[in-house]
Amino acid sequence: MSDQLIIFDTTLRDGEQSPGASMTKDEKLRIARQLERLKVDVIEAGFAASSNGDFDCVQSIASIIKDSTICSLARANDRDIARAAEALKPANRARIHTFIATSPLHMEKKLRMSPDEVFEQAKMSVRFARNLVGDIEFSPEDGYRSDPDFLCRVIEAVIAEGATTINVPDTVGYAIPELYGQFILNLRERIPNSDKAIWSVHCHNDLGMAVANSLAGVKIGGARQVECTINGLGERAGNCSLEEVVMAVKTRRDYFGLDVNIDAQHIVAASRLVSQTTGFVVQPNKAVVGANAFAHASGIHQDGVLKARDTYEIMRAEDVGWSANKIVLGKLSGRNAFKQRLQELGVVMDSESDINAAFARFKDLADRKSEIFDEDILALVHMEGAEAQAETYRFVSLSQASETGEQPKASVVLIAHGQEVRGESTGNGPVDASMKAIESQARSGAEMVLYAVNAISGSTESQGEVTVRLQQGGRIVNGVGADPDIVVASAKAYIAALNKLQNPTERVAAQG
Ligand code: KIV
Ligand code: ZN
């Protein structure tokens, strides 16, 4: 059996299914580039048949990414599969990932199909897909809650039709590590042609065991592909987190005996990018990418680490891309230094005019903040991209007054539908007044379901990064804004969320 573990990233497909995490095309392209830099083996770029927008994203990612295999999800029907194949045409290496539910509950209640019908549809779909693309992955959705005898029948048939990867999803996060590992092993041992395909694990985190289950699927079950997302992004409690599974396999190579292609030095930048794009803040104690993952607060630990790092550290922070939080640039830095730092951070800008625009924003920030950290530059570049898509509303300026015992007031100038307008309001605090001032002009009627502030680089001098989640007519969107002034960051985040609400994306759900 191979000692290479394939890393299949589904941040742009399963991760994006998380409510509020939907991304624009530009955001997806930026994340796809970062995944390529990370040396992810397979990027699931989307679900081409679900909407024209998703088709366009898969096609564009397939055109620009050269090193990773590009995959599109497709339900087990000819139309979805043909759409996926069409979108994947520009790819250097393409994969179609087709799926159909196989658990009794899903077949009866969701699909309203008999097991024999599901069996036939799975077989015919893989046969159809195999004529279009050589690399075919098949997933029996809700596989872990399926009857093993039926699953063996379906999987044997789809391998015979040419499926090259068999993925066994724990769709609802019900598995327990040892049982899931045994489940995969049992299938592999019972299915006569199981050695003709690579086995893959796909675990959801509802019981907090997605990473443990995936690793058990690898160690006990013999799977050689793990499906995962950056920061564990995904529906409900999320998917298996890429950074945790990769660092477990790398750090405990003595136990797993497996190699992964991932260039771990790009992990922290990937985590930041996904968090800033989606507005899903990474918890400080999150393994590998949380702000505290390498921080030693207790005196005993600090003393130990100073004497010998490995007393309390099993990984090196710099190996996963944590910089020493050093000041990189300031007010006097020139365009060349800025451009070089962007390259060192792995930020690719499409044109000189994009660099000029980012540099102008950098100068503006440096006027207000004496020390510019890598984190500031990444936030600034990301915000540049986000605002470039802002069609309906654009932030111009804000003034607010608050004094103990007085009701705070805010006045916000914005461009709305091409016209400069001013909104004014009072509120419980300056942030509340500013949001109400914007809403007095936008009149979206959206409900705010989350407001979160995060300091980008740790001190009061830092930029505040604000996430605003709005809900309107069943849709949930996140907006993110960054600025040294958190009231301004809040206004920008609110405007970013309003802009996302203006761009409805109708798509078919992958599950359900
Ligand atoms: O969780 C799941 O079952 C999925 C499939 C579509 C692979 O995401
Ligand atoms: Zn899933």
Automatic annotation (TrEMBL):
Span list, region Regulatory domain: 394-512
Molecular function via GO: 2-isopropylmalate synthase activity
Entry's family note: Belongs to the alpha-IPM synthase/homocitrate synthase family. LeuA type 1 subfamily.
PANTHER family: 2-ISOPROPYLMALATE SYNTHASE 1, CHLOROPLASTIC-RELATED, HOMOCITRATE SYNTHASE-RELATED
Lineage, highest ranks first: Bacteria, Pseudomonadati, Pseudomonadota, Betaproteobacteria, Burkholderiales
Oligomer and partners: Homodimer.
NCBIfam families the UniProt entry points to: leuA_bact, PRK00915.1-3, PRK00915.1-4
Superkingdom: Bacteria
Enzyme class: transferase
Protein name: 2-isopropylmalate synthase
Residues annotated as binding Mn(2+): D14, H202, H204, N239
The keyword Cell cycle is assigned to this record: no
Xref: Pfam families: HCS_D2 (PF22617), HMGL-like (PF00682), LeuA_dimer (PF08502)
Gene behind this protein: leuA
Native organism: Comamonas sediminis
Entries under SMART domains matching the protein: LeuA_dimer
Catalysis performed (reactions): 3-methyl-2-oxobutanoate + acetyl-CoA + H2O = (2S)-2-isopropylmalate + CoA + H(+)
SUPFAM superfamilies for the chain: 2-isopropylmalate synthase LeuA, allosteric (dimerisation) domain (SSF110921), Aldolase (SSF51569)
